[in-house]
Design brief:
A six-stranded mixed beta sheet has the order 2-1-3-4-5-6. The longest helix has 19 residues. The protein is an alpha/beta fold and 208 residues long. Helices cover 29% and strands 21% of the residues. It has one domain: Alpha-Beta Complex (Maf protein), CATH 3.90.950.10.
C-alpha cells in the first residue's frame, strides 16, 4: 500500500519510513507523488489543518489519474506551541506569528518578549502535535500527542533543529531541560510528535 506524506520535508519522510519499518506501506513525499502545491493552512485547530493537507494531496493525485485507479493513503501533521498565559497562543499560528518569513531566532525573541512581564511560575505551556490519516475510501483517522511544560526566561540548548525554533524555549515537565538540551533519541521518547506517531504506528500495524 502506498502512503503519501503531505510534506516537502525530506527529513520528515525519512522519519516516517523508519517509524513504519516492517509494515506493508511504501511511504512517499508529496513531491514524489507529483504534488508540488501547498494548501493554505487556515484551520482553527491542528487537526483541521492536518486534515486539509492530507485531503488536498489525495485530491490532487485523484485528479491527475486518468484511469481513476490510484488508491492511496494520505497523511499530514500539524503542530505548535500553546502558552497558557497568552490564551493558548501562538497555537496554529506557531510557524508565522512573528511575521511571514521570520527566522527561528526572531520567532524565539518575539515569544519571549510577549512573556516579558509573566512571572517564572506562570509560564506553563503545551506542545501539541496532530496527525490525520485519510484512507483510500476517504475515512479520517486522527492521532494527537501533547506534552506539558514551561517556557524558561531565556533560550537554552545547542541541539538546534531546522524548522523547530521552539525547542530552545520549551522545557517538558519533570525534565529540567529544554528539547534543545536533549539528543534526538531523548526528545523523541517523550515529545508530542513522538506520542502522536506512536499512536499512528499502533493503528497502522493493526490494519489488515
Amino acid at each position: 500500500m502506498r502512503l503519501v506524506f503531505a510534506t516537502h520535508n525530506a527529513n520528515k519522510v525519512t522519519e516516517m519510513r523508519q517509524l513504519l519499518r516492517g509494515l506493508p506501506f511504501a511511504v512517499v513525499s508529496a513531491d514524489e507523488a507529483g504534488v508540488y502545491e501547498d494548501v493554505v493552512e487556515d484551520g482553527e485547530t491542528f487537526e483541521a489543518n492536518a486534515e486539509k493537507k492530507a485531503r488536498f494531496v489525495q485530491n490532487v493525485i485523484a485528479r491527475s489519474d486518468a484511469t481513476k485507479q490510484t488508491r492511496v493513503w494520505s497523511l499530514a501533521d500539524d503542530s505548535g506551541l500553546c502558552i497558557d498565559a497568552l490564551g493558548g497562543k501562538p497555537g496554529v499560528y506557531s510557524a508565522r506569528w512573528a511575521g511571514e518569513g521570520a527566522t527561528g531566532e526572531q520567532i524565539v525573541e518575539y515569544t519571549l518578549e510577549k512573556l516579558r512581564d509573566v512571572l517564572e511560575d506562570r509560564r506553563q505551556a503545551s506542545f501539541v502535535s496532530a496527525l490525520v490519516l485519510i484512507s483510500p475510501e476517504g475515512a479520517r483517522h486522527a492521532f494527537r500527542g501533547e506534552v506539558r511544560g514551561r517556557i524558561p526566561l531565556a533560550p537554552r540548548g545547542t541541539h538546534v533543529r531546522p524548522k523547530l525554533p521552539y525547542d530552545v524555549i520549551f522545557e517538558p515537565d519533570g525534565t529540567g531541560r529544554t528539547f534543545a538540551e536533549m539528543t534526538d533519541e531523548e526528545k523523541n521518547s517523550l515529545s508530542h510528535r513522538g506520542l502522536a506517531f506512536n499512536e499512528l504506528r499502533t493503528y497502522m500495524a493493526a490494519l489488515k
